[in-house]
């Protein structure tokens, strides 16, 4: 596991439960990995020179940290182990292009709400489910993890953009307001979320996906009718921790794709401008 944060912690626990030996390659050192109060007996590795020989590599950093994780990727990459890119956004392979990795790449999506509350300590606030491409290493990936439902899809691009829809409204709005998902019920916010997703569906379609306005409506209805208002988003958790947020790879990716297709996205552009204006207090 490269990254021992929220997703790295959950996947380390799931891989251990499936009977695998797990090493977690970390930036900020910690002694013990604890997920939902239970210690995960994983090896914590702090120096890429000590990278072990592995059968699978799971990259679970934020997208903006991929470049800094290059020494880990290069140290672990043996040309044989699949490299699973577990990230939000639609730039999975793009984020590692230029690193000349030899192992087969497997982009992956995860649906879960999880927070790294301090180094080595993760709290999961919802069940987890993953989606990977059906072909290549995706055929064997579900065997790697216990307790997480893994689906395989023939149309990963559509699924990645579907997940983007979920992130494009909730992540910026929670991060900008420093509020949990209950903020989506404030007056005017459902309308803002709907407008953000309306722009995004048009871009997603131009990008070759099969998403329609009905997919955006379904998501907005789900936000309006429930979900746990105590849950946050990964962008909110970064903001609360004073860390840089992933906005360039979520809202920024949408705005860049829109520009390629000449589609106006004023609501997303406004959110992006505000997200760019935030000054993180902790920068690695
Ligand atoms: N949290 C959630 O609920 C969800 C997150 N996601 C996505 O999953 C991905 C991972 O997010 P998440 O786990 O929440 O993020 P976190 O910030 O909780 O964890 C990322 C981890 O990566 C580590 N890291 C960063 N750079 C390096 C490096 N160079 N070498 C080793 N480790 C490094 C960080 O270390 P350090 O401790 O030093 O900061 C941190 O522990 C993101 O793309 C996110 O959008 C998707 C669905 C839900
Ligand atoms: C919105 C959510 C929780 C969905 O999994 C997510 O992807 C995130 O927090 O970044």
Automatic annotation (TrEMBL):
Q: Which residues form the Ketopantoate reductase N-terminal domain?
A: 2-132
Which InterPro entries does this entry report, sorted A to Z? 6-PGluconate_DH-like_C_sf, 6PGD_dom2, ApbA, KPA_reductase, KPR-Related, KPR_N, NAD(P)-bd_dom_sf
What keywords does the record list, in alphabetical order? NADP, Oxidoreductase, Pantothenate biosynthesis
EC number(s): the record gives: 1.1.1.169
Its pathway, per UniProt, is: Cofactor biosynthesis; (R)-pantothenate biosynthesis; (R)-pantoate from 3-methyl-2-oxobutanoate: step 2/2
- Boundaries of every Ketopantoate reductase C-terminal domain copy: 155-278
Oxidoreductase found in the keyword field: yes
Gene3D superfamilies from the UniProt entry? N-(1-d-carboxylethyl)-l-norvaline Dehydrogenase, domain 2 (1.10.1040.10), NAD(P)-binding Rossmann-like Domain (3.40.50.720)
A Pfam entry, by short name: ApbA
Reactions that this protein is recorded to catalyse: (R)-pantoate + NADP(+) = 2-dehydropantoate + NADPH + H(+)
The lineage's top-level taxon is Bacteria
Q: What does this protein do?
A: Catalyzes the NADPH-dependent reduction of ketopantoate into pantoic acid.
Q: Which PANTHER family match?
A: 2-DEHYDROPANTOATE 2-REDUCTASE, PROBABLE 2-DEHYDROPANTOATE 2-REDUCTASE
Query: Family assignment?
Result: Belongs to the ketopantoate reductase family.
**Name used for this protein in its record:** 2-dehydropantoate 2-reductase
